[in-house]
Design brief:
This protein is of the alpha/beta class. Helix 3 links the parallel strand 5 and strand 6. The chain has a 6-stranded mixed β-sheet, with helices on both faces. Strands 2-3 form a two-stranded antiparallel ribbon. The chain contains 9 helices and 8 strands.
């Protein structure tokens, strides 16, 4: 686990927090898509979208809509998973279903974009931008025009011929110094996010919960154990926050043995997978 002060724009937590700034998010979408957007509205991007109790829920990094009703889902990806194309398909389907209430006509579905910002070349063609729409197999000039778009940005790709501002953006996401107005604004917000004490505590609490779920959730059939473990971690987090023991909270989030010691000290039952 990274120390909170070491997080940068490619860490999903910081990315989501920085992109919660409407002006920055709108400007970035405009650069990526080369369009003008008058305004955007956030669509509960911090919530998990789950359509049924037994369905696979997803947590979208950034989920916004413009004045025309076009929906944009922005995701940061630093790990090269071969499943990303199918994940984009799943996200697209969930977003569509989230727009439509049972019994409503399909023509209410608006344009939607699923955009992955990748710090690797998923397709190995050295392109900076891979954009996909549904086309006819036998005649690529025939478009389905179903309003769906999937984009994979590659920070490592050939940037010749792309917009100067987008090039600066991709270089910044690739770890280079900000050298444009937008990237400098984003970098400033990253610095502000690192110094946000509320977000730091939120990150530590979230990371502790994720670590506990990972340790207790490696095998299937342990829903009860995960629930107990999460309850134990939440109880410890609440105590440490109330006592302003932030350093202990941060240490416990990365050191499972220290976490167990604190739970024992406060007589908290340690949840385990069964």
């Amino acid at each position: 686990m990274k120390n909170y002060k070491e997080l940068n724009i490619t860490d999903q937590f910081i990315f989501a927090k920085v992109m919660s700034n409407k002006n920055l998010c709108k400007a970035m979408l405009e650069k990526i898509l080369n369009i003008k957007i008058r305004d955007i509205e956030y669509l509960d991007y911090e919530d998990t979208i789950q359509l049924a109790v037994d369905s696979k829920g997803i947590r979208l990094d950034i989920y916004v809509e413009d004045e025309a009703g076009t929906v944009f889902n922005l995701e940061m990806q630093t790990t090269n998973y071969s499943e990303l194309p199918k994940r984009s398909r799943y996200y697209q389907g969930i977003i569509d279903l989230n727009m439509v209430e049972k019994g409503e006509p399909y023509d209410i579905l608006k344009e939607s974009y699923v955009i992955f910002i990748c710090t690797f070349d998923l397709f190995g063609k050295n392109r900076s931008i891979y954009e996909f729409e549904n086309l006819c197999v036998d005649d690529s000039n025939v478009r389905l025009k179903d309003g769906t778009h999937k984009m994979f940005l590659n920070t490592k790709g050939d940037k010749n011929g792309i917009d100067k501002e987008l090039k600066a953006l991709l270089n910044y996401f690739d770890g280079k110094e900000p050298d444009s107005k937008l990237t400098r604004q984003i970098d400033k917000k990253v610095a502000e996010a690192r110094n946000n004490e509320k977000w730091r505590r939120e990150y530590m609490s979230w990371q502790m919960e994720m670590n506990q779920k990972y340790r207790d959730g490696q095998k299937e059939g342990i829903a009860i154990g995960v629930k107990q473990a999460t309850k134990s971690v939440n109880q410890l987090t609440k105590i440490l926050l109330s006592e302003k023991r932030y350093e202990d909270l941060e240490k416990a989030s990365s050191d499972s043995e220290y976490q167990k010691q604190l739970m024992k000290k406060y007589n908290i039952k340690i949840g385990r997978a069964s």
